[in-house]
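Field reference: sequence -> structure
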Amino acid sequence: MGTTQLEPVPEPKYWHLKTVLSQALDSEFAVGEILPNERDLAARFGVARATLRQALEQLELEGRLQRRRGVGTTVAPPRMGVSLGTGPHTWPGGPQDAWQPVDCSTAVPPAAVAGTLETREDEPVHVVRRFRVSHGRPVAAELLYVSRASVPELSGIDAPSGTARARAVLRELQRLELDRQENAVELGSAGADDARELDRLPGAPVLVVTTRFVTAGRTAALSVATYRADTCRLTFGDAGRVEIHDGPQRQAS
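Structure field:
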């Protein structure tokens, strides 16, 4: 059987427009700046508004643009790099940690979390809620589950609830010797809570990074961090931390 030669397919008009728009974003617009309306943009580039919308949608998928109801289309900040490197491991809440603790409660965790922490399924654990903000907007939300046995000296009198309680749990973790941490990542969809906290629609794509912190041969804490997929990209260096990349990222990694 002979081979079939495929004829080259011409580049779609909206794809060429996307490239032109991307170059304009780099040279003419600043992060957070509102783009002109669709009618003016279509007239500037000499294209139909349907073609323009396709190009804008693609740039939004690649994280170059943000569309906000009541605001318009704005230039998105650079993607945040989620590092899965093999560098030095640290407890959450350390000096270089960019996460912001907002609350802490005591609750029975999901069964899978209880199994990882090796606690009874009906045993409450500390649940620390934290957020990561970039350019003034939330880009990630985290639930950090900590077994009560891991922080036995935690005082409920000094920090009964809220941010103070969260900081107290993180401070107690620093006293432990960290053997290692293990990361896993998967693509998911934003649930109702994640969507509300990250200013996304339910079902929007997210990156879920699970980190297990091991000390003395057992899991002392488990982090489940949900990142906006349109603002983050995975990096596999040796930094061992989450970094903000200053340069524009044209394509998702």
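Note: The longest strand covers residues 205-215.
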